[in-house]
C-alpha cells in the first residue's frame, strides 16, 4: 500500500506539499513536526475542502537534531 512521508510539515514546502497531497491524492500521509503536533495538524487542515478526509493525516513528533528521537522511525 502506498503512502506519503513528509518531513518536516510544520511550515514551508513540507507544509504546502502535505496540503497538496491531501487535496489531490487519496494517499495516507505521515507528516512530522518538531513540536506541537496537534497545532500543526490543525494548521495543515485549516481551510481545506470538507471533502478532505482528515483521518488520512497523521502528524508525529520528530526532531532530527538528536539520534534518540529519530530512532522511533527506524521501523520504516
Automatic annotation (TrEMBL):
This is Putative short-chain dehydrogenase reductase. It comes from the Eukaryota. It comes from Uncinula necator. The lineage of its organism: Eukaryota, Fungi, Dikarya, Ascomycota, Pezizomycotina.
